[in-house]
Design goal:
Low-confidence stretches: none
CATH architecture: Orthogonal Bundle
Strand order of the largest sheet: 1-3-2
CATH topology: Multidrug-efflux Transporter Regulator, Chain: A, Domain 2
Order of helices and strands: EHHEEHH
Number of domains: 1
Helix content: 55-70%
CATH class: Mainly Alpha
Length: 99
Protein backbone atom coordinates (compact mmCIF):
# COMPACT_ATOMS: atom_id res chain seq x y z
CA UNK A 1 0.00 0.00 0.00
CA UNK A 2 1.48 3.35 -0.97
CA UNK A 3 1.28 6.40 1.21
CA UNK A 4 -0.50 8.21 -1.64
CA UNK A 5 -3.72 6.45 -0.60
CA UNK A 6 -3.07 7.03 3.11
CA UNK A 7 -3.59 10.04 5.35
CA UNK A 8 -1.38 10.55 8.39
CA UNK A 9 -3.37 10.26 11.63
CA UNK A 10 -1.62 13.42 12.88
CA UNK A 11 -2.72 15.38 9.79
CA UNK A 12 -6.24 13.98 10.06
CA UNK A 13 -6.55 14.85 13.75
CA UNK A 14 -5.24 18.37 13.13
CA UNK A 15 -7.57 18.98 10.18
CA UNK A 16 -10.68 17.66 12.00
CA UNK A 17 -9.69 19.08 15.40
CA UNK A 18 -10.04 15.71 17.11
CA UNK A 19 -7.81 14.07 19.69
CA UNK A 20 -5.67 11.16 18.56
CA UNK A 21 -6.99 9.10 21.49
CA UNK A 22 -10.48 9.19 19.92
CA UNK A 23 -9.14 7.71 16.66
CA UNK A 24 -7.11 5.18 18.62
CA UNK A 25 -10.18 4.14 20.64
CA UNK A 26 -12.19 3.68 17.44
CA UNK A 27 -9.37 1.55 16.07
CA UNK A 28 -9.22 -0.56 19.24
CA UNK A 29 -12.99 -1.10 18.99
CA UNK A 30 -12.50 -2.37 15.42
CA UNK A 31 -14.44 0.50 13.87
CA UNK A 32 -11.65 2.01 11.81
CA UNK A 33 -8.54 0.62 10.14
CA UNK A 34 -5.14 2.16 10.81
CA UNK A 35 -1.98 1.18 8.91
CA UNK A 36 1.50 1.58 10.35
CA UNK A 37 4.38 2.30 7.98
CA UNK A 38 7.82 3.20 9.31
CA UNK A 39 6.39 3.79 12.79
CA UNK A 40 3.91 6.34 11.44
CA UNK A 41 0.18 5.65 11.61
CA UNK A 42 -1.99 6.26 8.58
CA UNK A 43 -5.69 6.10 7.79
CA UNK A 44 -6.58 4.57 4.39
CA UNK A 45 -8.64 6.82 2.11
CA UNK A 46 -11.34 4.15 2.07
CA UNK A 47 -11.90 4.74 5.80
CA UNK A 48 -12.26 8.53 5.61
CA UNK A 49 -16.00 8.78 4.96
CA UNK A 50 -16.79 6.30 7.73
CA UNK A 51 -14.41 7.98 10.16
CA UNK A 52 -15.76 11.46 9.42
CA UNK A 53 -19.31 10.17 10.06
CA UNK A 54 -18.18 8.81 13.44
CA UNK A 55 -16.53 12.11 14.33
CA UNK A 56 -19.75 13.99 13.52
CA UNK A 57 -21.72 11.58 15.73
CA UNK A 58 -19.25 12.19 18.54
CA UNK A 59 -18.90 15.96 18.21
CA UNK A 60 -22.36 17.06 17.07
CA UNK A 61 -24.52 14.47 18.82
CA UNK A 62 -22.24 13.83 21.82
CA UNK A 63 -22.32 10.05 21.28
CA UNK A 64 -19.59 8.05 23.00
CA UNK A 65 -17.55 5.28 21.37
CA UNK A 66 -19.84 2.51 22.67
CA UNK A 67 -22.82 4.31 21.13
CA UNK A 68 -20.96 4.81 17.86
CA UNK A 69 -20.11 1.11 17.86
CA UNK A 70 -23.78 0.17 18.34
CA UNK A 71 -24.96 2.62 15.67
CA UNK A 72 -22.32 1.40 13.21
CA UNK A 73 -23.35 -2.20 13.80
CA UNK A 74 -27.02 -1.35 13.22
CA UNK A 75 -26.21 0.63 10.06
CA UNK A 76 -24.25 -2.34 8.70
CA UNK A 77 -27.22 -4.61 9.42
CA UNK A 78 -29.60 -2.19 7.65
CA UNK A 79 -27.30 -2.07 4.60
CA UNK A 80 -27.11 -5.89 4.53
CA UNK A 81 -30.89 -6.17 4.75
CA UNK A 82 -31.33 -3.59 1.97
CA UNK A 83 -28.92 -5.57 -0.22
CA UNK A 84 -30.84 -8.75 0.50
CA UNK A 85 -34.13 -7.06 -0.42
CA UNK A 86 -32.60 -5.83 -3.71
CA UNK A 87 -31.43 -9.36 -4.50
CA UNK A 88 -34.84 -10.83 -3.71
CA UNK A 89 -36.56 -8.21 -5.89
CA UNK A 90 -34.21 -9.02 -8.76
CA UNK A 91 -34.91 -12.75 -8.40
CA UNK A 92 -38.64 -12.04 -8.26
CA UNK A 93 -38.44 -10.03 -11.51
CA UNK A 94 -36.80 -13.04 -13.18
CA UNK A 95 -39.69 -15.29 -12.15
CA UNK A 96 -42.31 -12.70 -13.09
CA UNK A 97 -40.71 -12.28 -16.50
CA UNK A 98 -40.97 -16.05 -17.21
CA UNK A 99 -44.74 -16.15 -16.60
Amino acid sequence: MTTATLISTNDFCTWHEVEYTFISTLHEAGLVEISVIDQTEYIPETELQKLERMIRMHQELDINVAGIEAITHLLQRVEAIQEEVRNIKNRLRLYEGNS
